[in-house]
Design a protein that fits this description.
This protein is an all-alpha fold and about 170 residues long. Helix content is about 55%, strand content about 0%. It has 8 helices and no strands. Helix 5 (about 100-115) packs parallel to helix 6 (about 130-135) and helix 7 runs antiparallel to helix 8 (about 155-165). The longest helix has 20 residues, at about 5-20. The radius of gyration is 22 Å and the shape is extended. The chain starts with a helix and ends with a helix. The relative contact order is 0.06. Bound molecules: pyridoxal-5'-phosphate. The site of pyridoxal-5'-phosphate has 7 residues, from helix 5.
């Protein structure tokens, strides 16, 4: 990127930021204060003293910090497999697979489970990671479904709202 391209890139970013600000959609990161009513920590585990102690104990016992790489290549570890085996036993399933975040879980799970013959109907307010997982599906499906619904005289608006955002 030369100097001219760089300054046009910065100008474009500034214009996008101004646009977001005008629409009251400019976001900044804040530290939590007061009562947190938008947390995912439904069970209060983030501040649980026993869990903290277990975590520290686990970190002290393991020989390395972090995966150091993709699990498929060099990042797999006995601890992960043990965790998954224990969870599978707890859940009464044959196997379990841990993801490092909900986002990764949705992308990984949906994009690998859904195949060319599957249809997905999703609420437009579903989490962005669910919508992104659908992006891995064939785009042609959307038009085929809209054609089918049109042929069946089903309301197209329904198809658009539920699928464009899915
Ligand atoms: C349904 C759903 N999926 C995925 C996520 C993303 O989870 P994470 O923040 O762990 O990536 C969230 C987070 O709120 C969620 O509610």
């Amino acid at each position: 990127m030369d100097r001219r391209e760089a300054s046009s890139f910065v100008a474009r970013l500034q214009a996008e930021l101004s646009d977001l600000e005008m629409r009251a959609q400019l976001r900044t990161l804040e530290f939590n204060t007061g009562v947190n009513l938008c947390s995912n920590d439904y069970l209060g585990l983030a501040t649980d003293a026993r869990l903290k102690a277990e975590l520290l104990d686990g970190v002290n016992q393991t020989w390395q910090m972090g995966a150091t790489g993709s699990r498929l290549l060099s990042g797999n570890s006995r601890e992960w497999e043990q965790l998954e085996e224990e969870f599978a036993e707890f859940a009464g399933t044959s196997d379990a697979l841990y993801f490092s975040s909900g986002y990764a879980a949705n992308i990984g799970l949906l994009s690998s489970l859904l195949g060319p013959v599957d249809w997905v109907f999703s609420d437009s307010l579903n989490h962005a990671s669910i919508s992104m997982a659908y992006a891995y599906l064939e785009h042609g499906k959307l038009s085929i479904l809209i054609e089918t619904l049109t042929r069946l005289k089903m309301p197209l608006r329904f198809a658009r709202t539920s699928l464009v955002a899915s």
